[in-house]
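Sample entry (270 residues):
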Amino acid sequence: MLGTPKEVVFDRKEIERRCEEYFSVYDLTQERTRKMCEAKTEHSRIVASNCENIARGLNFDRYDTDLAWIIGELHDFGRFGQIVVTKTFRDTDKWNHAHLGASLLFKHELVDDLISNWDEVDEEDRVVMEKAVYHHSDFRLPEDLTPRERTFCTLIQEADQTDIFRTIVKSGWETIYGHTKEEILDSDFSDAIVQAFFCHELADYSKRTTYAGYHLAHIALCFGLKSKAARHRVAEQGYLEQMMDIEFTHPAVEEKFQQITAEVRNYLYE
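Predicted structure, serialized as tokens:
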């Protein structure tokens, strides 16, 4: 439990139904764009469940557990518009999905249509939710977060990262990356991406200059999993192993990749 208990009761079924109505608009899209939207719809459901599980493991009360679940449900709202316009999951200054989602939900008040008793949520938690959505894909969280804000920002990042591996494997490389597996395995990756693995750190997305670098940056998300429970879950699911069960075309690149995968396994199973 975080601080004084709060009495607001959320209707999860209603929130889930209203989110589904929003997501269903994108059923009108076609081919890869539609597959990308479908992948993010399923991802949102699973991340919400991950948020709830993490919150329960931290002994959150009912209200804070519901708040965590709602943040998970809402965190990728900006993805759908990004997908339709740009046909990619790659964030730019103009199309940062986390910032776009926070703007749609909280600046343009879409959240008021999704949560019928939004007026009962106090200002502190409105800010908590907005910052959790806005910062969920940050390379590093800002220093000026309050303890409550940091708790929920960290929680959504871990819940999100835990499901990325499944999303990539289940949806397929061409759907997620827009490139074939062969194209990725025939490319190289920058030293900056490699260095992240030996430091056990997230890879800076701005350094993803090649097809392979984009794939490796997603593998490096495992280093954002600070809790043993999250690392155990990822290891148990096996999707990360499937992402690493590949062989690069060029021997020198494959040698570097073997060193990278050894670092990942050391981190997950230590």
